[in-house]
Amino acid sequence: MDKNTWIGFLLIAGIIVGFSFLQRPSKEQLAERQRQYDSIALVRQAQAEAQLIADQLAAAEQAKADSAFQAERADLMQQQVQATYGNFAPSAQGEDKTVVLENNKLRLNIAYQGGRIRQAELKEYKAYNDSLHFLSLFRDDESQLSFTLVTANNRVLATRNLFFEPAETTSNSVTMRLKTDIEDAWLDFVYTLPDDEYMVSFSMRPHGMQQVLAQNINSVEMQWDQLIPQQERGRKFEERYARIQYMLVGGEMETLSEQKSDSKRENARIQWIGYKDQFFSTVLIADDAFTSTEMESTPQGSHSRYIKEYRTKTSVPFDIRGQKTTDFRYYFGPNHYNTLKAYDQGVEKDQRLHLKELVPLGWKIVAWINKILTIPMFDLFQSWGLHIGLVILLMTLVIKIIILPFVFASYKSSAKMRVLRPQIDEINAKYPADKMQERQQAMMALYQRAGVSPMSGCLPMLFQMPILIAMFWFFPTAIELRGKSFLWADDLSTYDAILSWGYNLPLIGDHLSLFCVLMTVTNFAYTFVTMQSQATDPNMKFMKWMMYLMPLMFFFIFNDYAAGLSYYYLLSLGFTILQTMIFRWAIDDEQLLRQMEENAKKNSTKKKSGFMQRLEAMQREQQRLAREQAKAQQRRH
Fold it and tell me: With b meaning 16 or more CB within 10 Å and e meaning fewer, what string describes 232-264?
């Protein structure tokens, strides 16, 4: 830049500095300006304080108005509560709390509201999908037990809507008290849980309630509703055993359908009502009896966490003066035969509860086998501390030894029929199908000479059937198998799926059970061995194929069943195959034929039995009638 430019910049800077100096306010001006600012701040502060006072006054007025409204509303609500609940108004509201009562088997949560048992936990068991917590038969609102109270001024109240308070608590009992506005009138629910017990005593004890309740009542209505949660892996199988079961006074057992929705009105007196699952039950026992009872069972949807909903409405005796208490017993526990049976030990016959009938052991003859043979044998082997797989193995071996004589008799009869096959074929060739009666007569003569009865092979099998059916009933209901693992099966009480596909296929379902597959393969092998050792008619090919179809049918049936049952049948079939091979080795067909020929010579001079004489007479009479009918038809033509 040149000199003129620099001079220009300097002149401009000097002008700006001089102008700023000349425009600077004086001290008097600065003081005045500060005074003005202070005055504005004071005005604004005064305005804010005035607004604050106004807001506080308004809030106070509003609070006063709200307080008056709330007081008026509280008075109105109190009047409504008094009008609705009458003498029970003090118990119309309360805290949502629980009291815990427990021993080494049970933990019960007793709710203030309703004075009812809100949750029942079995401390020795867990649900299949929850390994951390105790198994809960029900919790929260899944179970509701309520009694209907009719007051002196005809108010109808339900205890489920009223609040109780703990009046007395000990180590094994809790007294829940329902208070009234009368000082010496209340209703107690007393729960007592002894040590090492599944049975809980429950007593209703009124005190001075004649001042509150209607004078003409001698019973109260009870409503008992409960949802049954799924506890096991196999829902379909669990549903099959879940049902309402009850016992009439006198010992007669009745049930509602487990397959579909069912309801029943029972006018007879009922001793106890059981809400049953596959392995656990909640049973309410009346020390007197239930009367005028209505029960309802409703299956839940397949996607619900519950399998059944049970409802009961009934009446129980009730003395409002409290001279006699209304007593019940609750059973919260497993469907374990010996545990349930123990409650009848030392009890008079007409006072027995027969709770052991909650365990389904089959028809009478089958149940008898399970009671005197299967269960004692199972308990004996378990008491030795053996693994559950070995227990079932020993049971199978003992049962096979017991029925061994019947199996041997059946095999020997089949062997006799097999060695007679050539002679039977000769008779079939000699007498064509249109001479069936002559063929049958010749067959019977052959059997009599040889000392063979066609029924001798069937009767031993009939003796075995009750034992086989007994096992069919025992294993799916044996709670001892629940949660017990063996080989690849983590729970022998349900199916042992080695392959699952998440959706149901016709016949087979949503999984494949390995023990069932092995049982089916062994069953095919057993059928093959049996067919080889029996005399079969070449014309009966359909029956032969049916014999091979049976194992396949059993596969579809047993795929959902307990792995313990399939394991037992697998062992049983394996032992049977081994027995058959031993029998085949021990019995020589040629020697057996010679023995039968010797018997035939002896029987030729032996007088026929009365049965055989009558049978031959009937055959001759049938032949005579057939000939006469044939001649009559020829004459007509």
Answer: bbbbebbbebbbbbbbbbeeeeebbebeeebee
